[in-house]
Amino acid sequence: MSEIPAKATESEDPSDGARADAAGDFARAVPGGAAVGTEAADGTASGAASAASGAPEDETGGETRDVPRDTTGGGTVETPGDVTGEAPGDLTGEVPGDATGEVPGDAMWQSSPPGSIYDYIKAASFSIGADGLVDQWSLRAEQIFGIPAERAVGLDPIEAFVPADRRESGQRKMAEILDGREWTGIVPFRTPAAEGAGEGAEDPAAREGLAEVYVMPTTTEHGERAAVCIVVDVRTLRTIETDLAASQAIFGQSPFGFLLIDTELQVRRANQRFASIFGGTVDDHRGKGVHDYLPHAEAERVTAVLRRVLETGDSITDMHVTGQVPGSDERRHWSINLYRVHSGSGRPIGIAWLGTDITSRRAAAREAAAARRNLALLNEAGARIGNSLDLETTARELLDVVVPGFCDLATVDLYQGLLAGDETPPGLADGSAELRRVAFASAVSDAPFAGGPAPVAVGAVHHYPFNSPCADALRTARPQHLPADDGGLIQSTLAVPMVAHDTVVGLAQFSRTKGSEPFGERDRALAVELAARAAVCIDNARLYRREHERALILQRSLLPPGDPEASGLDIACRYLPGNAATEVGGDWFDVIELPGHRTALVVGDVMGRGLRAAVAMGELRTAVRTLALLDLEPAEVLSALDEIARGLGTPGGVQQATRTGRQSRDADLSEVYLATCVYAVYDSVTRRCTFANAGHLPPVLVEPGENALMLDVPPGMPLGVGGEPFEEVEVELPEGALLALYTDGLVESRDHPLDEGLQAFVGALTDPSRPLEDVCDHVLNTLDTHHGEDDIALLMARVQGLPAESVGDWTLPREPRSVGRAREYARTQLVAWDLEPLVDTTELLVSELVTNALRYGEGEIRLRLLLDRTLVCEVWDAGLVQPRRRRARDTDEGGRGLQLVGLLSAGWGSRRTPRGKTVWFELPLPDGGTPLTDPAEALLSLF
User: Fold this and answer.
1) Where are any strands of DSSP class E within 79-151?
2) Which residues neighbour 4 within 8 Å (Cβ) at sequence distance 6 or greater?
3) Bond preceding residue 479 cis, omega within 30 of 0
4) Is the confidence at residue 677, as pLDDT, over 90?
5) pTM of the predicted model, to two decimals?
6) Which residues contact 391 (CB under 8 A, 6 or more apart)?
7) Which of 125, 359, 571, 812 could cysteine-pair with 818, CB 3.0–4.6 Å?
């Protein structure tokens, strides 16, 4: 057994050794628990290390075999390093026993209230007789080695427990011990399976262990040499040594504040980190309580929590505590974790306190919360501001967002010039131009204004003094902080200019009352962003209002002013633009007087909205009037309009559009102008009306005593599509009949389909005999005309044919004497109409036109006089050549006939007819207010 580390000493009193003192020191150090045990690390750990220093490196302590036993005590004995302390029998409670710890019945590990070293280590004893065999075997030895006393007594300990390769040296040592020598050392041993256990019932590793043995020589009652052996499980000692070192490292090197609080809620131990925060040395904090570190209210709360943890054993995680550290007024925040600690016997001995400074984390959390709140406010602003194209509504939407989420009071002022429609808001140079308060919101009463300047009422016009912060904000386009008035309730105000596209459109003021947090830099930036978003929406609303007003003005200027007049027709019309939220459309109507007391009725609708549609409508209306004056047939007018509409979206005009259309149909639809139109020509002499339709809704006719009906006019393709001819339909209108032309806005909306609208419109025309103005109002009041989705154009005409007595019609043969006969017919008719003042002029002009028909025309000649609001004279012939006016030279004998006609008449012209041409002139009636031209002066003016 020379390889067994050993230390042998000669001692007269073997029981008097330093190891007993070391064990006593260790016993006094350990009962404090894991945290307290750190104090004993220097003594005990070193002792355990010295005890283990002689063991070979390849020898490891085996786990002590635990013999299960039933106990009647409660509680769990905890030991460091996962040594649960649940020794065989799960030893708890106070059990009377002798000094050796042996008790009758079941063996137990002794546990006493202040705690003992034996709560943590496993020690046993047995004695060896003079024959070298075991003669006494304690219960604790039975638990360590796993052999009951009846088996162990009489065994040779060397043969039974020492491995075979060490038995020889062990026998020598035993002989020396029996000779009276004391010995101590580390001994590997075997723990055979318990009696009755089957083979392999236990893990083989559990049968081997490492023990520190202290052998003390004794004598028997017969004077023979014997020995008493004390055995300690080295594995347990090494575990305690490791746990003590780890506990010291954790407690001493932890970056967090660590306290051990006893059952009296006083500090038993603090680590260096805690002392560095609250000042002093580690020992200075012994005996202090939480009231020495925290404010009273916070300390009371923490004390209650500590008592609850001590009583229930429930741990507390991430409890936030607020206080100050010595020498600083800054509020600090800590996150505290609390849990109850126990002695080795399971008795509560205090509370472990682990604290982490979370002040910076709390500040970062507040910053993140503020950022999230600001982001949510911006998202809300993006969703709520700008839903309307009204300036005042947009300003109120801004205040609905910021009050009370961002401030307590807020106002919005806009430049008066901007609201009036000026291009550029005035006063940007000095910021003192007139503004109008358009919105105000408050989350409090009017009390903040008590004692301060009188508030500006909503809608009032005002201005800021030149040197005021508000004027400076408008002038520099930078936000300004307004000082609070003494005695008022407002403590912080931001004046933020509303800037859109580098233009200041107004000023927004945000105020917070006392008790709220003052505005900071983050709030300042947020206010600028909110004001900028609202300013862009306000500027967009301003631009839209300007465009809408201009388009409306343009559209109205292109419509007939007032109620138009027509020969043989009673006219009434209505035009309703869409509401302010919808762009102006391209609806139009027109009444065009044609030669021969004929009238052209036009209703059209350009597809699309806005200024572009209004301009296209104006171009098409102008083209319609021009084509109508050429006296073309309705189908020809629409064909020409179709070519013009196709050329509106092409830089090269109609011809370029035609070539492009032949080459490719992939034109950009945004540049295609499409329109629907119905064109009708009414002849008051014959009461016949000719219709042509380009994709428009059918006209409605109401004959006297009959129900309204929609005329079957073939709908052609819309204008701008091209490629399809238009058809004409001629209808004879009875006297007193009512004709209605309209656009789709009158009969169609999202809530009412087109078919339902048409039936409702037809049903509304029940009493055509009423005045036309009343009929128009009745139709608009009956139908859903307030949807605002589209413009509405309505043109209604009542037929009043030209009486037969107002018409003079004669056919003349193609001979020279027909000129004189024509003058005679004209004189006789004018005298019958009491128009003697017009006789001379009419005779002269009739003679001139009939002469031209004889010289340049063909076929028989027809003379017709028409009397209505004016006198119209028409000369018909079969020739196709149109007369052309030219300027005669002084030496020319002829060529002045048409010049004379132009001088003496209010108007003249020619038009084609199905059988030739018609040349006409028009004279105002004597009582019409237009002075008559003297024929003699007209003749002299030609020379």
Assistant:
1) 123-128, 134-137
2) 166, 169, 170, 173, 185, 186, 187
3) no
4) yes
5) 0.53
6) 414, 418, 419, 438, 538, 541, 542, 545
7) 812
